[in-house]
Amino acid sequence: MQSAAASYVSLDALKSNRNALAEPVEAPAHAGCGTSGGEGKASCGTSDGPDDMPADVWNKVKNHPCYSEEAHHHYARMHVAVAPACNIQCNYCNRKYDCSNESRPGVVSQKLTPEQAVKKVVAVASEIPQMTVLGIAGPGDSLASPKKTFETFRMLQEQAPDIKLCLSTNGLALPGLVDEICKYNIDHVTITINMVDPEVGAKIYPWIFWDHRRVTGVEAATILHQQQMLGLEMLTARGVLTKINSVLIPGINDEHLIEVNREVKKRGAFLHNIMPLISEAEHGTVFGLTGQRGPTAQELKAVQDACMGGANLMRHCRQCRADAVGLLGEDRSEEFTLDKIEEMEVVYDLDRRRSYQDRVEAERQAQHAAKVEALAATQDAGAADGIKVLVAVATTGGGRVNQHFGHADEFQIFEVSAGEALFVGHRRVDLFCQGGYGEDEKLPSIVTAINDCHAVLVSKIGACPRDELKTAGIEPVDNYVDEFIEKAALSWFADYTGRVARGETVHVARGDASIRQGAFTAAA
Ligand code: CLF
Ligand code: SF4
Questions:
Q1: Structural Rg of the chain based on CA atoms
Q2: Closest by Cα among 325, 336, 328 to 134
Q3: Ligand 2 pocket: which of 79, 82, 86 to mutate (most atoms <8 Å of CB)?
Q4: What is the pTM of this model?
Q5: Which of the pair, 454 or 378, is modelled with greater confidence?
Q6: For 457-469, what is each residue's pLDDT tens digit?
Q7: Closest CA to 35 of 195, 267, 294, 382
Q8: Distance 98 CA to ligand 1 centre (A)
Q9: What pLDDT is recorded for position 88?
Q10: 3-state secondary structure of 263
Q11: Measured between alpha carbons, how far is 353 from 362 in angstroms, rounded to an integer?
């Protein structure tokens, strides 16, 4: 496990780069909500609604769990692993595993034919009516196996026309396939762009396969870069929503990602998802074997914060696997293996799906309205004297503090200041409570994962973890049970700053936190 203290990213350097982003940048005509994101806007999802973007864009994002932070609490996606080949080599990838541009190394997906894939999607859609999006994200590159990828989309469109289509690619083959993408009404395309400078790219990509030959070094990175930029511009011109994934590799492209953010915004990217490098020697990747570490939680946040004001940021990515099924953050793929699907009675009932999704949407809007109302009463968070802190929250969904500390396998992280509680990410942790008993040896890793937080908001917590958290300087808070998260966070913050003002509590800065490096699997 890497040290959380060492930091390659200078916060001051990032801040000065952020100021550079404030210069006006010309946006193309079809730039989606990327053009409406103002300085300080954190992400496209949390509060964006039909009033924040054109109606056609809203229709595309409102029930896509990756393109809307709010939607990801209500709608599910699934991936089918139909694209095994790849046309480039990334230093963070081992072909034994899934494409780590869109998933974590360390998990291997069951590869499917297009026929098997469509059967699986229809089976999942009939069991999980809030599953609204099919993505193809590997296990190689979706556009390096274009026949399999587009055949899957073609067949699915005929059988389940209400499911949104989404794909993820490294971009090398993208410009030549934009017509196909539009032909099959694929409205959402993710391009992994880790650099806009081929000198940086040469440190990430040892080779690409191009024009029937292997190209290496800066020449390879130059071709990849040109194809990525061209592909992005072409998609923007055709009105396809694009998300850019960037893998943050400390010491290689950390500060450079600010430039990437600026360049992709210029070309109309809708969202920018900056993800941490997952790197372990056991993955057998070049970076894993050479000891290249991933970023700490604060390094990741520093780069994301420095990009605010540029392309809108996605901060709720779970780096899911190429055969993931379910809500982001959950993985139900084990319920839908090929042998289990064979035994299922599959009835694809479009009307039932629509009426279920109408109920989901009504519930989402009711939750949103209740949250807005609850927040209106909590805007005065007291005299905070510029204090800004992170809090971790245990939640099972619904936007409320409603989970036992011991049952949380991830915490949502909110940045709280006077009158504002902003979702800034999540941290995966080991479950503390297994089989009804707390496992004390899990506590140090949980504390490490939220070590930069001042408080953890939970519905309940046992005596032992409560003491351990207090010792680590993290305040366990269980008196906002079932309250909306933002309201609970602001109420706690008002109480906290009140105690600081009265001299009952000394406000001290927190340290850094570690991002869990293990693979995300259904059992994790
Ligand atoms: Fe899949 Fe990707 Fe489409 Fe989403 S995932 S192809 S855009 S439907 Fe989402 Fe998963 Fe993150 Fe990808 S959470 S890894 S961003
Ligand atoms: Fe691996 Fe994906 Fe990179 Fe291809 S694009 S080398 S599959 S991480």
A1: 22
A2: 325
A3: 86
A4: 0.87
A5: 454
A6: 999 999 999 999 9
A7: 267
A8: 13
A9: 97
A10: helix
A11: 14
Report which residue type is found at 470.
K
Within the chain, what is the greatest distance between any pair of CA atoms? 71
Neighbours of 212 (CB within 10 A): 5
Angle between helices 256-266 and 11-21 (to 10 degrees): 20
Whole-number Å distance, alpha carbon 320 to ligand 1 midpoint, is 7
Any idea which residue has 């899957």 for tokens? 152
At residue 60, does pLDDT exceed 50?
A: yes
With the most atoms of ligand 1 within 8 angstroms of its CB, the residue from 64, 67, 98, 168 to mutate is 168
Produce one character per residue of 273-311: b if its CB has 16 or more CB atoms within 10 Å, e if not.
bbbbbbbbeebebbbbeeebbbbbbbbbbbbbbbbbbbb
CA–CA dist 223, 205 (Å, integer) = 11
Q: What whole-number distance in Å separates Cα of residue 267 and Cα of residue 276?
A: 24
Q: Is 1 a residue whose pLDDT tops 80?
A: no
Amino acid at 321: R
Residue to probe by mutation, ligand 2, list 95, 99, 321, most atoms within 8 Å of CB: 99
Question: Ligand 2, from 98, 102, 141: best to mutate by most atoms within 8 Å of Cβ?
Answer: 141
Alpha carbon distance, N-terminus to C-terminus of the chain: 18
- Cβ of 274 less than 6 Å from ligand 2: no
104 CA distance to ligand 1 middle (Å): 12
pLDDT tens, residue by residue, 273-312: 999 999 888 888 999 999 999 999 999 999 999 999 888 9
The strand ranges marked E within 59-163 are 76-79, 88-89, 131-136
All domains in the chain, ordered by first residue: 46-343 (3.20.20.70), 380-501 (3.30.420.130)
Question: How would residue 257 be classed by pLDDT, with cut points 50, 70 and 90?
Answer: very high
Task: State which ligand 1 atom lies nearest to the alpha carbon of 137.
Answer: 6
Q: Decide whether any atom of ligand 1 lies within 6 Å of the 17 Cβ.
A: no
CB contact at 8 A, 325 and 76: yes
Q: Which tokens hold the place of 318?
A: 């779970």
Cα–Cα distances (Å) from 10 to 4, 15, 80, 273, in that order, read 14, 9, 40, 21
What's the one-letter identity of residue 310?
A: G
Ligand 2 binding pocket includes 208 (Cβ within 6 Å): no
Rounded to the nearest angstrom, the distance between the alpha carbon of 93 and the centre of ligand 2 is 6
Give the residue, by CA position, lying nearest to ligand 2 atom 2. Answer: 99
- Ligand 2 centroid to 450 CA: how many Å? 30
pLDDT exceeds 50 at position 41: no
Q: What is the pLDDT of residues 144-184, one digit of tens each?
A: 999 999 999 999 999 999 999 999 999 999 999 999 999 99
At a CB cut-off of 8 Å and minimum separation 6, what does 89 contact? 205, 206, 207, 208
